[in-house]
Structure formats: structure tokens, C-alpha cells
């Protein structure tokens, strides 16, 4: 099979030179293993963080095939419970085919289009739902601020918060993206974090302060958000994209000061923590998609060979909604 591997771990920004394409021989699946054909690869900002050392998963090393989360079809099975033709999601690698342990793969129904299993009904939608509902706990009338607002998770955070009767402010890169967030996604306002006047714009967009900040980026945006939080506000720590693709990350200078003075609650979470709430999340998301309160935003790029550029471009803010690479036909 063709696979894409990491040549060298990046120190500064990720470039195409950090990757190489190679051919790998696949053995027959061993006991408890399956042979998978990759259909859709999820392109995740977190993949860049895995290159910095251990996170919630083991670190990625030079020479490894690039790990990813993907939707695949079972081609050959040597594991109970999975048969050829089954669709599964779970961790695999940037490759046309791969041998994986069946443990850790989740069988999924053939929802059409399959891309929805990567976006609204996949990790992006579930992360938005669980983080906002269980960690943020929004109440109608509250103000919700979300960063990476046009991204895979952010676009659902804002749309769910709107559906729950909150006022929603986004943070995104560039005036065009901000216009997209208000006009297409229906947020009440959006602030451009690249504009030097960001802090003033944020204050203006949030005249009543912020009750929930859903933080996808950390760094200077988190610092600005802490200043506009209301007393007893909640900061949902989902990720820290601003810290992933650099060896020179800057953190908020007002931490923990603002947390103390404003009696804030900052809480991190990992989407898997809420696996027991999966069915409820699925039902709620399906309802909102059905009523049109949630628009499904997807950014699909064709061809395994384009995966490195897709990840590099994601880190630079090219994407709108969930970015994925289509490797093979449905
Ligand atoms: P996105 O689809 O939002 O893509 C990344 C976006 O981040 C880009 O489009 C870009 O948009 C923005 N960005 C890039 N660099 C910066 C920067 N320096 N400062 C601010 N924004 C930046 O990614 P996801 O929705 O997949 O992920 C969002 C966050 O959620 C990530 O932190 C990820 O790690 C996290 N996550 C957490 C999970 C959990 O269980 N806790 C599960 C899944 C994801 P722009 O043009 O606006 O800059």
C-alpha cells in the first residue's frame, strides 16, 4: 500500500519536507486484527500537537506512518464482531490500506453522506456538543464566545449555542472569514484576532461581557477573552491551536489573575470522556440538522497525496468547517 510517513519531527512550522511517501507491504491480519481500506481521513489540528510529545495519546515519532482518525471499510477480518464490508471509525494511518487491531475501532452505520460521520456526527460535532453542554452548561440569554469559529468544532459550538437561545460571538482570522461566520453561520458578531484592534472589537461585540468562552486556541485570544469574562463565567478548554505549530508559544499573562478576581471556572475535557452521552448527543444533533438550525460545514480534499498540504493549510486557517481527505470511494 502507499503510505505517508514523517521524515523528521518539526521544530517550527510544519512543511511538506517533514513528510515522505513510501510503499509498504501489508501482512495478513493477525489474531484480533483487520485489514482496512481507508475512505476518509480526518485532518485535525491536534495531529500537529502529537508531534510535540505525549498528549492524551502517545507521541508521534520520526519514521512513523502519520497517524490519523479515519473512516475505513473492513476488507479482511481476523477479529470477532467485524466482517468484510463493515464501516469503522478509529485511529489508523495516512495510507490506502492498513492493518489495525479491531479493539479501538468503532463500527458505524452507513449514514449518507459518509462525510457527516467525520463532521457533525463525528468528533467535531460531538466535541462541540459535549464541551458546550456538559462543561460550559449554557443558559438561554447568556453570551457565548468561541474561537476558531469557522472551524470544524467552532462552527457547531456557535450554532448549538444559538439554537439554545444564547448570544454568540465568534473569533476568526481575517475579515472575510468573520463575514462568513456572521452571514453563513448566523453568529451575532465575529472578531478578527489578526487585527491589532482585536481587544477593542471584542469589548464592543460583548457589551454585556462573556459568560462562556469555548477556547479552541489558547494564547493571545485566551488572554483577551479572560479580560471580557463576566464574574463566575466558564472557560471551556477544548484545545490550543495557537500553540501547536510553533516552538515559541505565548500564553496568557493574566492567568491565574483573572480566574481569581472573576471567580472563573476553567475546565478541560476530551470528547471520549462523554462516550456515555453519545446517544443523546446524536439525537440532539440530528434534530438540529433536521430543523436547519445546524448547517453542516465540510471541506473535502481528494487524494491521499494531498494529506500533508491539507494539514499544513488547516494550521494556516485555509479550512471552513471540517477538513477531511477522501482516499477511496464510498
Ligand atoms: P479547525 O477546523 O478549527 O481548524 C483550525 C483552525 O484554527 C484554522 O482554520 C484557523 O482558523 C485556526 N487557527 C490556526 N492558527 C491559529 C492561531 N494561531 N490562533 C487562532 N486560531 C488559529 O480545527 P478543529 O475544529 O478540528 O479543532 C479545534 C480545536 O479543538 C483544536 O484545538 C483541537 O485540538 C481541539 N479538539 C479537541 C478535542 C477534545 O476532545 N478536547 C477533540 C477535537 C478537537 P482562522 O482562520 O480563524 O485562524
TrEMBL record:
Domain Enoyl reductase (ER): 12-325
Listed GO MF terms: oxidoreductase activity, acting on the CH-CH group of donors, NAD or NADP as acceptor
Any coiled-coil regions, as ranges: none
Presence of keyword Oxidoreductase: yes
UniProt keyword list: Oxidoreductase
InterPro entries in alphabetical order: ADH-like_C, ADH_N_2, ER, GroES-like_sf, MDR_fam, NAD(P)-bd_dom_sf
Keyword Oxidoreductase: yes
Name used for this protein in its record: NADP-dependent oxidoreductase
Amino acid at each position: 500500500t502507499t503510505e505517508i510517513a514523517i521524515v523528521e519531527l518539526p521544530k517550527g512550522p510544519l512543511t511538506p519536507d517533514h513528510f515522505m511517501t513510501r510503499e509498504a507491504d501489508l501482512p495478513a491480519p493477525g489474531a484480533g486484527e483487520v485489514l482496512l481500506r481507508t475512505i476518509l481521513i480526518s485532518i485535525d489540528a491536534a495531529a500537529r500537537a502529537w508531534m510535540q510529545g505525549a498528549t492524551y495519546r502517545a507521541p508521534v515519532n520520526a519514521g512513523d506512518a502519520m497517524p490519523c482518525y479515519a473512516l475505513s471499510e473492513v476488507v479482511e477480518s481476523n477479529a470477532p464482531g467485524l466482517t468484510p464490508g463493515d464501516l469503522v471509525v478509529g485511529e489508523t494511518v495516512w495510507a490506502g490500506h492498513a492493518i489495525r487491531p479491531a479493539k479501538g475501532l468503532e463500527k458505524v452505520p452507513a449514514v449518507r453522506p459518509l462525510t457527516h460521520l467525520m463532521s457533525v456526527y463525528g468528533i467535531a460535532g460531538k466535541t462541540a456538543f459535549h464541551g458546550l453542554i456538559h462543561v460550559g452548561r449554557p443558559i438561554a440569554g447568556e453570551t457565548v464566545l468561541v474561537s476558531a469559529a469557522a472551524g470544524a468544532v467552532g462552527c457547531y459550538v456557535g450554532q448549538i449555542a444559538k439554537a439554545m437561545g444564547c448570544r454568540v460571538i465568534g473569533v476568526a482570522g481575517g475579515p472575510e472569514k468573520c463575514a462568513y461566520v456572521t452571514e453563513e453561520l448566523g453568529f451575532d458578531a465575529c472578531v478578527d484576532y489578526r487585527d491589532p484592534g482585536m481587544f477593542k472589537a471584542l469589548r464592543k461585540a460583548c457589551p454585556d461581557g462573556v459568560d462562556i468562552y469555548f477556547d479552541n486556541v489558547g494564547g493571545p485570544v485566551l488572554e483577551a477573552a479572560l479580560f471580557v469574562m463576566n464574574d463566575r463565567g466558564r472557560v471551556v478548554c477544548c484545545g490550543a491551536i495557537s500553540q501547536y505549530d510553533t516552538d515559541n508559544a505565548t500564553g496568557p499573562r493574566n492567568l491565574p489573575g483573572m480566574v481569581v478576581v472573576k471567580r472563573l471556572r476553567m475546565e478541560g475535557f476530551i470528547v471520549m470522556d462523554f462516550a456515555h452521552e453519545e446517544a443523546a448527543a446524536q439525537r440532539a444533533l440530528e434534530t438540529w440538522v433536521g430543523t436547519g438550525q445546524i448547517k453542516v460545514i465540510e471541506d473535502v480534499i481528494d487524494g491521499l497525496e494531498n494529506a500533508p498540504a491539507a494539514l499544513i493549510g488547516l494550521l494556516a486557517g485555509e479550512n471552513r468547517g471540517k477538513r477531511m481527505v477522501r482516499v477511496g470511494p464510498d
